[in-house]
Amino acid sequence: MRAASNSIVNDIMSRLLLLITLFSIVWVGCTSERFANIERGSDVSFRQGYPEVRMMAVGLFDQDDMPGVSLHVDVVKGSLIYKSTDDVFTATFDLQVQVIQNLDNDEVLLQNRVATIEVTDRDPLVVDSSELATYTERINLLPGSYEVVIAVTDKASSRRTVRRSTVDIPDPEGAYTGITSVMLLGKSNEDTLGYQPVTTYFVPAMYDSLKFQFQVTRPATDVESSVNMQLERFTADSTFAREVAGIQHSPGSVAYRGIDYARPEIIESTQRTLVSETGNILIDYVTPVLPSANYRFAVTITETRDEEQPTEIFKAREFFISESPNFPNIQGVREFAEPLIYLMDRRQYARLMQIEDADSLKQTIDRFWLSNIPNVNKARQVIELYYTRVEQANKQFSNFKEGWKTDMGMVFILFGPPLQVENTLDLSIWFYSYNRNDPRTIFQFRRPRVSDRFFPFNHYIVERDRFYHNVEYEQRREWLTGTILNQN
Description:
Elements: H1 2-36, E1 38-39, E2 53-61, E3 67-76, E4 83-85, E5 88-103, E6 106-121, E7 132-140, E8 144-154, E9 160-169, E10 178-179, E11 183-187, E12 196-197, E13 202-203, E14 209-218, E15 225-236, H2 254-257, E16 259-274, E17 279-288, E18 294-303, E19 311-321, H3 333-337, H4 346-353, H5 358-372, H6 376-397, H7 407-415, E20 420-423, E21 427-431, E22 442-446, E23 461-462, H8 468-481
Parallel strand pairs: 1-19, 13-19
Antiparallel strand pairs: 2-3, 3-7, 4-5, 5-6, 5-8, 8-9, 10-14, 11-12, 11-14, 14-17, 15-16, 15-18, 18-19, 20-21, 21-22, 22-23
Helix pairs in contact: 6-7
């Protein structure tokens, strides 16, 4: 009897384990597919001497209901190399566009072309400008899944930056309803061009309103389609990095987790029911300017056919509203004040941030630098170096908040680029000396294992220790005396 009983128990446990496994596979598959349908735009990446490139490629139908891809490419003018002739500054780059389709596990190159683009300006400040050289193109393609690859090569340096984007074009003649990706556009009241595509996760504060645009492809059917649109805001860490010699973040804190996807706050919600509309249906959703935070605009289409279970189609666009209209660059006087947290004591910084008048704030910033570095020329060089690193930190380490506020951004600003970097799955080690046994010249950054396995950001937290107190103090003195210039 005991053997029979054990056999029955083992059989039940085996079936239960199989059910759990199957459920896990289905759940992970559905969740993976859901998160694969969330667009976040191009990263704001920086590589010294390489063109800074951002792109957006969205499958859309034109006014004649022809399928294709709307391609939008932004190249930062200040990342190019210029030649000066007769007071005219000229930069030239090649833009290569490739369209690839995967057919039977083979990549087929459908389109491949190169356009040469010239940027000219009489203003010598163009060499450091954050303005964008924009390229747009409509690529006619049949419904399907594609990879769009663009490569920008600076003709003066031959250095190349490559960007990739997967694009899906739904079939309007298919048996089921489809949806394109959600395109994010912004408009400033001072801009006469109207809404312009936003190619990055970070949305500068220059826009007065945002528009989310997508298309629904719907065959002739008696089934109603419920289009649910929802604007959500997520709680996220927005504070600047604390000292490396400070206290480590608690695993339950938002600073440790970074951003909380589990409990979004619904800002706006609306629903549209499609009954008689068929074919390609363009839907716009416009919202006024939003406060600085992390957001998601989500679209869910729900249908019920006969006695079948309701089906859902999900698409979303996530984004961050920056407090800066110039992000990732810094230009406003308050943008110059905020990063001084890494050089000032807390009371001095608190007094600085209480100043509301822009002229008074600028004078206080100037007095801070010159009171520490009386030599005006040396002070100017130190200031330029400091804020150059702040901008580079924004371009290299931004995730759910500005790069200069991250742990990696803080260490990069104070200590500069490391001599060596070792990366493993969840660990990044920065070496600032060839002596790899000196802990004072080594910083370890660990990526928290958050509960959301589809967490999209490179969120690293520095491993803090009290012995860094003297290291940080001495490094701040290097900045405040100007001797930091001897290290560069």
